[in-house]
Design a protein that fits this description.
This protein is of the alpha+beta class. The protein has 3 helices and 5 strands. Strands 3-2-1-4-5 form a 5-stranded antiparallel beta sheet, with no helix packed on it. It is elongated and about 80 Å long. The N and C termini lie far apart (69 Å).
Length: 162
Amino acid sequence: MKTAFLAAAVAASLLLGACSTTSPDVIRPGDAQRLSTVQDAVVLNVRPVVVEGQQSGVGGVSGAVIGGIAGGSVGGRREAAAVGVLGAVAGAVIGNTVERFGTREEAVEILLQLPSGERRALVQAKAQESFAPGEAVVLVTTGGRTRVMKAPTAATAAQPAR
């Protein structure tokens, strides 16, 4: 019973850790209803990259606890202690690996040129929009975080008030 409860707790914590994303399609609650700055740019290059997963220690600790409890239930008192320690070590390694790979993201690195001629690079998770060299984009910065999105076309751009 305890092992099942701990396994559920580990699964929940790993799933919550996996919710962290660099996706431009996901806006954090603190960024909603905040005025953002918008800057024009042109895409120079796009290349696929991987954002390495997190290693907060939650996966390792959770795995160690589950492995220790599972190993500690094997055999007699001496065997249970030895197997419990081995189970804790193996569980920590497995839990850490699961957390790291469970929080990895496929992303793109976008090389941009600003109207001033300055060049910038930005990494963001793959999203519904894809970008091509020569394409007009806008950089939207909110709370110190910037995302790239396609520039609105002249037909969809809002007309200034008169």
